[in-house]
Specification:
homodimer, alpha+beta, Mth169, Chain: A, three-stranded antiparallel β-sheet, 2 helices, about 30% helix
Chain lengths: ~80, ~80
């Protein structure tokens, strides 16, 4: 069993209106000193067996092409074998 | 400066059709042995100063009430001061 966590976030130079809305709401609800909020997606993928070799390569490729939009998003991929 | 990461995921007993769709797509694209996919949200919150005391309590409260829906979602909150 491997557990893979893929975090997808907008690139820093891309405006994040959802994050901005959350930042405003946190401030209105009394949380002071919030300088930035970014909202992203998280995928938790459970795999049979360990992630290695060609399957690891394919998952990295799919994380960059299916799970994230490479034009506007970056991703990080963490494996817990 | 504190950086707070709030991960929000559907409770395990709640069906996740988005995750199921991703699981199907990964399989069709050749990734074998995917037993489960869950899709959640991630908020990255940048704060001025350290997170402590009442402000920490308020952020925990807001993570459970504003950033997540306590009826169907769980959250984890990680602070990097």
């Amino acid at each position: 069993m491997a557990r893979v966590v893929v975090n997808v976030a907008l690139k820093p130079e891309i405006l994040d209106p959802q994050g901005r809305a959350v930042q405003g709401a946190l401030g209105r609800l009394g949380l002071i000193g919030v300088s930035d909020v970014r909202q992203g997606k998280q995928f938790i993928i459970e795999l049979d067996g360990a992630l290695e070799g060609e399957r690891a390569e394919l998952l990295h490729k799919l994380a960059g092409e299916l799970l994230s939009n490479p034009v506007i998003e970056d991703f990080t991929l963490t494996v817990e074998n």
